[in-house]
């Protein structure tokens, strides 16, 4: 048995004995028990923290990766394998891989920033690149979001961190929305104001405790320009809410004889006097 354990085999530049191989797998087996214990204790600890679900998931994945890497290194060293050549070749490999995976590492680092800073959390409603989305999951490299049409989109974390993102969920509980409306010259401006206020306040999703306002903005080239301001608590539905209010405004304008004019241009034609014969 002793002779068998001392028997060696060659794997390239490495020479291993069956004893070393047995030690390697013994360390792996023992380490697996340690890994299970660490994961159990860490999961229990994270449940008692204020970390978001996405942050807890990221911490678990990071710890698991680091622990597995350390276990493999310790197992190889215990088996008597010289890791000097391994580290030298790995360093050169990592430099080459790092150059080719710059965007990948940028996305990963951005993922950690998003999770630990708390600027974006699961369930938040965001405006990214002019698109309204709801965050479903934040992973190591990317963030999964749902559009208002129910489409799933995967956005690299570097894209979110690299631009201005409007977060409608964090901060104020309500979001201010504005609608611009133009009416024909000669319209009763007080009646227009009343209609705009009634149309906005009649919408179920408009916050009633917040004040709805109407401003007379300007005398335009072909219309009197108004803006109605109102607050909503569901910014993900702002286009639908705004559409409902526009329908009410149009119906009320028609009932009250108030016109929304087309852009107009007056063209004056001057006829040149006839030349004397």
Describe the protein in words.
This protein is an alpha+beta fold and 277 residues long. The protein folds into three domains: 7-100, Orthogonal Bundle (Helix Hairpins); 117-167, SH3 type barrels, CATH 2.30.30; 175-255, Alpha-Beta Plaits. The chain is 47% helix and 21% strand. The strands form three sheets. A five-stranded antiparallel beta sheet has the order 6-5-4-3-7. A three-stranded antiparallel beta sheet has the order 8-10-9, covered by helices on one side. A two-stranded antiparallel sheet has the order 1-2. Strand 3 and strand 4 (131-138) form a beta hairpin. Helix 2 (18-47) runs antiparallel to helix 3 (53-78) and helix 7 packs across helix 8. The longest helix is centred in the N-terminal third of the chain and has 30 residues, at 18-47. The protein starts with a helix and ends in a 22-residue tail after the last helix. The model has no long low-confidence stretch (mean pLDDT 76).
Condensed summary:
The protein is α+β, with helices and mostly antiparallel strands and 277 residues long. The protein is 47% helix and 21% strand.
Provide keyphrases for this structure.
single chain, Helix Hairpins, SH3 type barrels, Alpha-Beta Plaits, 3 domains, three-stranded antiparallel β-sheet, 8 helices, 47% helix
């Amino acid at each position: 048995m002793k002779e068998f354990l001392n028997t060696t085999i060659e794997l390239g530049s490495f020479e291993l004995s069956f004893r070393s191989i047995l030690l390697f797998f013994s360390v792996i087996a023992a380490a697996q028990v340690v890994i299970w214990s660490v994961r159990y204790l860490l999961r229990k600890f994270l449940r008692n923290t204020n970390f978001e679900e996405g942050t807890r998931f990221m911490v678990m994945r990071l710890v698991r990766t680091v622990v597995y890497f350390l276990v493999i290194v310790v197992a190889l060293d215990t088996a008597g394998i010289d890791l000097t050549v391994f580290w030298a070749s790995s360093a050169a490999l990592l430099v080459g891989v790092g150059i080719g995976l710059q965007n990948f590492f940028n996305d990963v680092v951005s993922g950690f920033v998003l999770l630990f800073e708390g600027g974006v959390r699961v369930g938040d409603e965001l405006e990214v690149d002019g698109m309204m989305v709801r965050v479903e999951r934040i992973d190591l490299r990317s963030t999964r979001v749902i559009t208002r049409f129910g489409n799933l989109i995967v956005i690299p974390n570097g894209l979110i961190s690299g631009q201005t993102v409007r977060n409608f969920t964090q901060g104020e509980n309500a979001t201010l929305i504005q609608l611009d409306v133009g009416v024909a010259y000669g319209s009763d401006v007080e009646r227009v104001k009343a209609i705009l206020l009634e149309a906005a306040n009649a919408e179920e999703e408009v916050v009633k405790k917040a004040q709805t306002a109407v401003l007379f903005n300007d005398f335009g080239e072909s219309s009197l320009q108004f803006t109605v301001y109102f607050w909503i608590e569901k910014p993900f539905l702002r286009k639908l809410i705004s559409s409902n209010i526009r329908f009410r405004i149009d119906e009320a304008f028609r009932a009250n004889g108030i016109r929304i004019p087309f852009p107009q241009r007056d063209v004056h034609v001057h006829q040149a006097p006839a030349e004397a014969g």
